[in-house]
Amino acid sequence: MIKDAPLHMVDLKGQYARIQDEVDQAVLDVIRSGAFIQGPAVKQFAADLSVWLGSTEQKPIHVIPCANGTDALQAAFMALGLKPGDEVITPSFTYIATVEVIGLLGLTPVMVDVDPQTFNIDPVAVEQAITPRTKAILPVHLYGQCADMTAILGLAEKHGLHVVEDTAQAIGSGWRMDAEADAFSMAGTMGTIGTTSFFPSKNLGGYGDGGACFTRDVALAEKLRMICNHGSRKRYEHELIGMNSRLDSIQAAILGVKLPHLRGYNEARRAAANRYDDLLDAHPLVTVPHRDGRSDHVFHQYTLILGEEGDGPERRDALAAHLTTSGVPFGIYYPKPIHQQGAFADLDAVAGALPVTEDLTNRVISLPMHTELTGDLQVRIADAVRAGLSS
Question: Does residue 4 belong to any structural domain of this protein?
Fold first, then answer.
């Protein structure tokens, strides 16, 4: 290994080098076929992903590919037929796309706090936020670990609510519905509709944009297909107001090559997370990621919490500056909660409304996490973290 080799937050080039021949052939096959939109590669990938997610003849899982993860969320809420003013409960500690589609459709986002250990939506806060106008819960399986789907689905059943899972960061993760059970239910397959993203940096990422919806409901699956195709199931006949959101054949072909490697990719991420834990867990200013024993974490991000509850961002900012000087990439996901963003200023959120979320946005920092990480690279990263925290 070259001592001063550049470090990458995500090493897509290294990953591609391992599957280059397969990817190149798959792309070439699509180009030669001329079937660039809704071609055989798209149908094959959807079928393969359905099986990968645990679909069976008795309990099928329908996969509806689309153009990106944001479109998947939008299509999901359009398919549910929610009306302007209907409330959707979701976390504020997430990427903007989660809440953006709620506002875009004229629905009312009700943002609640998260668990301080898992970073995922707090079921207690969800229950407190339910009103007669609530129609859906939108949990985000953040950083690669499932939210408490046992509690969330229980609340949904009790109050007659839909559950739309945002699994953009957690494909391949799972949740034990029963704490004593051995089997996991796959992220995105437990609620009414699941959504995901195939953005290049995701655990299953293409070489461009892409996304998909999952559902076990046959009627919803057909509606989702129509919505993503201009509200049409037959050419030039449009039964619904829809959108133009299609996964192109080249991206589907690439994803089809990568899908059989996904379990291995996720295992590589877990192994890297274990090495980080060994290197950093003893540091007094570092809290390494908590692993809920009921969730199968796939570490889309490896996110530390720095310092103590109530600390400001100063320690994180100093570490970030040191890492930058040291050539160590990092991410801050997310530095400003959604309820404090200007796009949602009309909600009149007050400081301290979501104390856990606001605390985490001051103290989280994510280290490089990808399938090509080695122990030597992680030692360099951990050494830089320790040096940055002691300066």
Answer: no
Could you tell me if 291 and 144 are in contact, meaning their C-beta atoms sit under 8 angstroms apart? no
Residue 67's identity, in one-letter code, is A
From the list 99, 73, 102, the residue with the least C-alpha distance to 340 is 99
Element of type H or E holding 134: strand 134-137
Strand ranges across the sheet with 302-306:
286-287, 302-306, 364-367
The structure tokens 């089809």 sit at 256
Quote the Cα angle for 228-172-23, to 5°.
70
Diameter over CA atoms, the chain = 66
Q: In whole angstroms, give the CA distance from residue 325 to residue 390.
A: 15
Percent of the residues in the chain that have a pLDDT greater than 70, as a whole number: 99
- Residue 63's SS3 state is strand
**Integer angstrom CA distances of residue 117 from 49, 122, 167, 213, 332:** 31, 10, 18, 28, 17
Query: Do 280 and 190 share a structural domain?
Result: no
Sorted by sequence, the CB contacts under 8 Å of residue 7 that are 6+ apart come out as 327, 328, 329, 368, 377, 380, 381
pLDDT tens readout for residues 236-281 = 999 999 999 999 999 999 999 999 999 999 999 999 999 999 999 9
Task: Say which residue the tokens 């096959």 belong to.
Answer: 29
DSSP class of 184: P
Q: How many CB atoms lie within 10 A of CB 22?
A: 16
**Domain with 342 in it:** 262-390
Structure-block tokens of residue 286: 């570092």
Could you give the CA distance from residue 375 to residue 372 in angstroms, rounded to a whole number? 10
Peptide bond into 143 cis (omega under 30): no
Cα 42 to Cα 35, 147, 319, distances in angstroms: 10, 29, 44
- Contact 285/307 with Cβ under 8 angstroms? yes
To which residue do tokens 């945002």 refer? 166
| Cα separations in angstroms, 129 against 110, 111, 269, 380 | 7, 9, 35, 45
* Within a domain: 83: yes
Express each pLDDT in 59-73 by its tens digit. 999 999 999 999 999
DSSP 58: S
Please, are residues 384 and 322 in contact by the beta-carbon 8 Å criterion? yes
Cβ atoms of 143 and 120 within 8 Å: the answer is no
Same domain, 208 and 81: yes
Q: Are residues 232 and 266 in the same domain?
A: no
Q: Is 138 left (phi over 0), alpha (psi -120 to 50) or beta?
A: beta
